[in-house]
Amino acid sequence: MGLFSFIKKLIGAADKVEAQVDTLVAEVKEQAPEVAAKIEPTVKKVKAVKKEVVAKTIEVEKKVTKKAPAKKTK
After folding, report:
1. CB 5 within 8 A of CB 58
2. What is the rounded distance in angstroms from the CA atom of residue 56 to the CA atom of residue 49?
3. CA 6-40-29 angle, 5° bins
4. Which residue among 11, 18, 24, 29 has its CA within the 20 to 30 Å range from the CA of 71?
């Protein structure tokens, strides 16, 4: 498994966790709005970091694949 495949699998797992966190925050908002208000800024920060990591990963992958073409087999 290549590095980019590994990173993409991690991002996919992060997407699943993000969906679960969104569900949890929605449930907490109903039961304890004050707690939800405290955790929402942190959740937003985490989502911003994930978005940045995805963008940088795409950028690096494009640079690497441009400079290192696939090896030809005989």
Report:
1. no
2. 10
3. 115
4. 11
Residues in the chain: 74
Q: Which residue has the tokens 């449930």?
A: 27
Alpha helices in the chain (DSSP H): 3-31, 33-67
d(CA 51, CA 47) in angstroms, rounded, equals 6
Contact 50, 8 (CB under 8 A): no
With b meaning 16 or more CB within 10 Å and e meaning fewer, what string describes 3-22? eeeeebeeeeebeeeeeeee
pLDDT single digits (tens) 18-67: 999 999 999 999 999 999 999 999 999 999 999 999 999 999 988 888 76
**Do 36 and 25 meet the contact criterion of CB atoms below 8 Å apart?**
yes
Q: Which two tokens stand for residue 34?
A: 């004050």
